[in-house]
Design a protein that fits this description.
Helix content: 55-70%
Strand order of the largest sheet: 3-2-4-1-5-6-7-8
Strand content: 5-15%
Structural class: alpha/beta
Radius of gyration: 25 Å
Order of helices and strands: HHHHEHEHEHEHEHEHEEHHHHHHHHHHH
CATH class of the largest domain: Alpha Beta
Oligomer: single chain
Shape: flat
CATH architecture of the largest domain: 3-Layer(aba) Sandwich
Largest sheet: 8 strands, mixed
Length: 467
């Protein structure tokens, strides 16, 4: 989402150069940063406050010998971005039993889907969430929540034929206590715009049941309107936090930078994709480093630990060391890497790669296209050939070529690349134990260690081998 802003800020910082930090080059940099923020749809009063804070810090900064102005400016801008985004992680209040979370938002913001995603997240953290269908107005809203609940294995509470939202909430809390659910998630009704009836209903729920969390779901692609919506909801209900959806979308990113400043309420969760496990805690420091092109290896490692299966990882490592790595193993590994996200998104999280947005998008497109071709190629083999690549001789290659619709030359090239990758993996001392560590979070993937960063870069190099 922040690609455009990120690229502009990085260019501005590079243009500052390595000469000393002067009033002239600082003023030019500030003008460019101001323009970049406004183009990213950041609220004007937020831009003014941000520029003022950066200027004050920069002018009062003691020039450190050996540190160039660009590095100093990065430090100052990074610190102010962290401040602007809310300073630190603000976790959900789940101290009650059951804890009551009220999901709020306009129709179309992704509230119902975010409710289901939150249920998945809490379930993975060992909680027992109960989804409650409180939207009794929108056609098929209850059915949508029930479908999502069935998909993620979380119960959905409803009162059939009832339009009394207070009765639904009261009954759901009693049901949660009786059935030992420790988190109740209220999927409240949204509207196309804020209106008096909508707010009256939400205010009654708030006053009667005192939810621990009142989370406003905002579509990150709505830009300036997100600030108006957030301020209106906060003025009426006193929000506890924000959920920013479509953070992976192609928007300019201004909403995320504006809503926190304008409401004084933290972004607690972010939606980073369409899958129902794509809801993450929001870390201002990590987001700031990503905006400035410094990567986010911590989040990448955490995502890897969630995605990679420890048992499969051990088996893969053993097969690699014994040169027993098959085409089936390759498909498993590729599918696990895909679960981390797109190639472009993964590359943006690795520090020091300095790959532009266009190149990342191209890599993403190419890697997805090549994986599909590789999948067709492998599926054209017999089960024995998939498990034992050494069986594939010239006659088998010809049969595979016809089955997958590729030329014999392309088949030979794929097999050659696969064998090169196998050889490369055998020689990867930095990758030893990496797949196991992805499953359990060991030292090889310590985000602060050279070994961890080296292993991750080598893994990504390996994945890009097929192109």
């Amino acid at each position: 989402m922040f690609d455009s802003l990120s690229e502009k800020l990085q260019n501005i910082i590079r243009k500052t150069g390595s000469s000393e930090l002067t009033q002239e080059n600082m003023q030019e940099a500030m003008r460019e940063i101001r323009r970049a923020l406004l183009e990213a749809d950041v609220n004007l009063r937020v831009v003014k406050a941000f520029i003022s804070a950066v200027k004050d810090k920069a002018e009062g900064e003691n020039i450190v010998e050996g540190v160039n102005p660009a590095q100093q400016l990065v430090k100052i801008v990074n610190d102010e971005l962290i401040e602007l985004l809310g300073k630190e992680l603000k976790p959900l209040d789940l101290s009650h039993n059951p804890s009551l979370i009220m999901m709020l938002g306009l129709q179309g913001a992704g509230k119902t889907t975010s409710s289901a995603k939150l249920a998945v997240k809490l379930k993975n953290e060992g909680k027992r969430p109960l989804l409650v269908a409180c939207d009794v107005y929108r056609p098929a809203a209850i059915k949508q929540l029930q479908t999502l609940g069935a998909e993620i294995g979380v119960e959905v509470f409803t009162l059939p034929d009832s339009t009394d939202v207070q009765a639904i909430v009261r009954s759901s809390i009693d049901y949660a206590k009786d059935k030992s659910f420790n988190v109740v998630i209220l999927d409240t009704a949204g509207r196309l715009q804020i209106d008096v009836d909508m707010m009256a209903e939400l205010l009654l729920i708030d006053r009667i049941f005192s939810p621990q969390e009142k989370l406003l779901v905002i579509d990150a692609m709505t830009g300036q309107e997100a600030v108006n919506v957030a301020e209106n909801f906060d003025a009426q209900l006193g929000l506890t936090g924000l959920v920013l959806t479509k953070l992976d979308g192609d928007s300019r990113g201004g909403a995320a930078l504006s809503v926190v400043y304008c409401t004084g309420k933290p972004i607690k969760l972010t939606g980073t994709g369409e899958k129902l496990n794509a809801l993450e805690d929001f870390y201002p420091e990590r987001m700031a480093t990503r905006i400035l092109g410094m990567g986010d290896i911590v989040s990448l490692v955490e995502r890897a630990q969630e995605v990679f299966d420890e048992k499969q990882a051990r088996e893969l490592e053993e097969k690699m060391s014994k040169d027993n790595f098959s085409f089936n193993d390759f498909l498993k590994m590729q599918k696990q890497m895909q679960m981390l996200g797109s190639m472009g998104n993964i590359l943006s999280m690795i520090p020091g790669l300095n790959i532009g947005k266009d190149d990342r998008e191209k890599l993403t497109h190419e890697s997805e296209k090549q994986f599909k071709r590789m999948e067709v190629f492998i599926q054209s083999m017999t089960p024995e050939e998939r498990n034992n690549p050494d069986l594939i001789d010239t006659s088998r290659k010809k049969r595979i070529s016809k089955g997958c619709g590729m030329s014999l030359q392309e088949v030979n090239q794929f097999i050659k690349q696969f064998n090169q990758m196998r050889a490369m993996m055998r020689g990867m001392s930095g990758l030893k134990g990496m797949f196991q560590n992805m499953g359990r979070g060991g030292n090889d993937l310590n985000p602060h260690s050279k070994q961890g960063r080296h292993a991750m870069k080598k893994a990504m190099s390996m994945m890009r081998k097929f192109k």
